[in-house]
């Protein structure tokens, strides 16, 4: 089964682009041919720069999918993301018709592909969001902790958690990409001691070793996001978060992206973070991190994107 690059590691550089379509009916034919040609654009980048490992994932918001492809069914778990409003924290819902997650070893390859895509879509879309993420030190989030350790590791496991299978046959090989742009209150975060920060995350800061259950608190991020199925087995998604920052503007952020076979898994994690986990605790990390966007996209299989009409 072929799937877009939804199981890849976060990489060195990433561009996240979100667009809205100006007029879905008027531009439909051009947009469909753009979709059919995207794999060619990616192939061209890989041919031009074989060492740069350029990749690009394309996704569609629920409204866009329905309007552009009314002849197709809708993926079972594709709906517009509904805001999650807890008593303390809110996971906002923000619009987005088209999504691109571009990764490469060199930032110039991200730029090149993003600029070609933007030029080809010009006149048909409006800009919603653009974030340039970078690998920070040894894979740390901008708040200084290594991010991604508990992701599924082996490719077959990553596929199992991130890629739709026979349960939604028509969309097998697809995935659900959920994105949120978080802004961190860095001065509040830095006012904590390292020990306090470690309790927020549930791991040691310097060497990434997990805290013991006794050292963690019920609201530790890795307690709240650790969810299980009815047999007590961990439910996972494939996260490819990237830090971004404009230090001179005092902007420090995390672009959260989780690829999932079932959006319901990501949703359970979000509900646990924002509404409260089984033990009632909301995520301690949210005291220092505000979600300013939140959008769900469906990522079709490459063959569906190539052949879609
Ligand atoms: C774990 C950072 C948002 C799901 C972690 C870890 C860090 C981290 C440093 C520990 C290392 C690791 O296992 O990856 C962040 C930051 C976020 C964020 C900076 C945004 C401000 C989210 C969101 C979700 C999520 C929105 C889910 C929807 C998880 C999961 C784990 C995790 C499932 C592993 C938990 C376990 O140990 O079982 N995150 N995260 N994170 N995060 Fe996040």
Automatic annotation (TrEMBL):
Domain of life, source organism: Bacteria
A Pfam family it matches: Dyp_perox_N
Keyword Transmembrane helix listed: no
A molecular function GO annotation: heme binding
Gene Ontology CC: cytosol
InterPro entries attached to this UniProt entry: Dimeric_a/b-barrel (IPR011008), Dyp_perox_C (IPR048328), Dyp_perox_N (IPR048327), Dyp_peroxidase (IPR006314)
Co-factor requirement: heme b
Keywords per UniProt: Iron, Metal-binding, Oxidoreductase, Peroxidase
Domain Dyp-type peroxidase N-terminal positions: 12-135
Keyword hit for Oxidoreductase: yes
Domain Dyp-type peroxidase C-terminal: 139-301
Similarity comment: Belongs to the DyP-type peroxidase family.
Name listed for the protein in its UniProt record: Peroxidase
Lineage, uppermost ranks: Bacteria, Pseudomonadati, Pseudomonadota, Gammaproteobacteria, Enterobacterales
